[in-house]
Amino acid sequence: MFEIIFVAMKKSISVVLLLAIFVFFLEQCKHGASEIVPNHPVITDTTNKAKDTTHLPPPPAPPPTTGDSTCFNTQILPLVLNTCGMAGCHNASSAKKGYVLTNYSNISAAVAVINSVTTRGSMPKSIPHWTAAQIALFQKWWAEGAKDVECTTIICDTSNVTYTSQIQQLIQNYCIGCHSTAAANTSGGGIILDNYAALKTNAQTGHLLCSIQWAGTCSHMPKGTGQFGICEQRKFAIWVNNNCPQ
Predict the structure, then answer these.
(1) What are phi and psi of 233, to 5 degrees?
(2) pLDDT tens, 198-233?
(3) Residue 129 in contact with residue 114, Cβ under 8 Å?
(4) In sequence order, which ranges of the chain are alpha helices (DSSP H)?
(5) Which of 31, 181, 200, 228 could tie 244 with a disulfide, CB 3.0–4.6 Å?
(6) Measured between alpha carbons, how far is 150 from 76 in angstroms, rounded to an integer?
(7) Rounded average pLDDT over 126-132
């Protein structure tokens, strides 16, 4: 009997001991859990990883070039030679007031003076003053830095060649210095080209194209500069062949 009781008590003690041990460890776990640092999002270093650009928009295209640089050799030099760098004015032999305006270095050095006298109309003398378009062209060249830009590629517009639209401006830029009404007898061989009627008459005799194309025994024009480019020659030929439309 006592042996049975002893065994039962031994089992009860074992159960109580196990319960005590369980409770002890449970309390320890609770205490330790309160000291655990809360979880934070894991930060992954992707510095050296290749970026996925599959869904990125393409980079913007560079802005187009405007191509608006004024050409010295085909726009400014002929204008200044034709109205300023002539015999009796500002060529090498005359050099009025010390100015020789027949090349880039001298013209660019005097750009402010040229702008001043042409704007107020005191120059050129004895020939028509610069038009508003010629003044604007020269000022545009100055504003762009008065650069020695040499243009070789030019879009040649021959869709509507009339005296007013294209020919008159070419005559003003290249010919008026010698062939104005005022200057023709002294420097232009008596040939007047500063108005439509006079130019048409000269064109119909064949002299205009002969001189421009440097053909036969005609005087090569314009003087003091190179021959007209292919585009300008074509414009004159179209104009003459179409009976010189005004």
Answers:
(1) -60, -40
(2) 999 999 999 999 999 988 788 888 876 678 888 889
(3) no
(4) 2-33, 77-83, 104-109, 111-119, 132-143, 168-174, 176-179, 184-187, 196-204, 207-212, 230-241
(5) 200
(6) 10
(7) 84
Yes or no: say if 78 and 177 are a contact pair by the CB < 8 Å rule. no
Q: Where are the alpha helices (DSSP H) in 34-174?
A: 77-83, 104-109, 111-119, 132-143, 168-174
Count other Cβ atoms within 10 Å, centred on residue 191: 19
Q: Sign (positive/negative) of CA torsion 14, 20, 21, 26?
A: positive
DSSP assignment letter at 228: P
SS3 62: coil
Of the candidates 217, 118, 218, 221, the one whose C-alpha atom is nearest the C-alpha of residue 179 is 221
Looking at every residue in the chain, the average pLDDT score rounds to: 77
Distance CA 138, CA 117 (A): 12
Q: Is the Cβ–Cβ distance between 62 and 137 less than 8 Å? A: no
Say which residue the tokens 């004895």 belong to. Answer: 126
